[in-house]
Amino acid sequence: MATLEIHDLHVSVEAESGPREILRGVDLTVKQGETHAIMGPNGSGKSTLAYSLAGHPKYQVTGGTVTLDGEDVLAMSVDERARAGVFLAMQYPVEVPGVSVSNFLRTSATAVRGEAPKLRTWVKEVKEAMEALQMDPSFAERNVNEGFSGGEKKRHEILQLELLKPKIAILDETDSGLDVDALRVVSEGVNRVRESGEVGTLLITHYTRILRYIKPDHVHVFAKGRIVESGGAELADKLEEEGYAAYVEGGASE
Ligand code: ADP
Ligand code: MG
Ligand code: MG
């Protein structure tokens, strides 16, 4: 049973005025099979947490530990983290000019699995996953995220999730910019992966909307760079009614 353990994580970014601490002591344990919603106001550091776990070089870890089954994740390169089973669906997926979705997925799968997937089964796997996400087959020949709509970008992230089958999936605002139909399709994809029981999910979101489709086991309020409250699904209902004002200095809520 894979377990991701984050202990007292501190992370800074280099700002013009010098290093600025964004994460201020994050503690969180995510086990395979569990879904944790991380909810918080804009600018609280949710994406910084996601990037830090994936190993983005801009984010400097200044304290704390992150382990996956006892292995030091912070000592791993971005590739090693992916191979170890850490997957990040980015809030703002980046364009990869000149690389088709099809090639990108196969290269990623090869890197994560340690060997190239057998072509025949792979083609079938991709086709089925795309159908399930209601994606047109021609999508596979487009360049990664080039000219993708918001919904297409998010579907593409979930397509990767379905094909790469990580141990820990970090989904950063996968709900943002989706209309209701796309939200449902994307949520169903996440739920298919969850139902395998083999993935621990960190569902980062600003809004409670996606939690109607994806039921979290645990809900955490994230404010000012740390988890300030944890509870069950009922905590999300409270947030829906009251917003984040109680957690933000001066009462301002976004
Ligand atoms: P959230 O995802 O909760 O909206 P972010 O992690 O994106 O929050 O940002 C948290 C804070 O860190 C913000 O004040 C943001 O401006 C700052 N920040 C994030 N990334 C960088 C960066 N690469 N350089 C400078 N500041 C950053
Ligand atoms: Mg934000
Ligand atoms: Mg963010």
From TrEMBL:
Superkingdom: Bacteria
Every ABC transporter domain range: 4-249
Classification via PROSITE patterns: ABC_TRANSPORTER_2
Pfam entry (one): ABC_tran
Keywords attached to this entry: ATP-binding, Nucleotide-binding
SMART domains: AAA
PANTHER family: ABC TRANSPORTER I FAMILY MEMBER 6, CHLOROPLASTIC (PTHR43204)
Protein family membership: Belongs to the ABC transporter superfamily. Ycf16 family.
Protein known as: Fe-S cluster assembly ATPase SufC
Protein's organism: Streptantibioticus rubrisoli
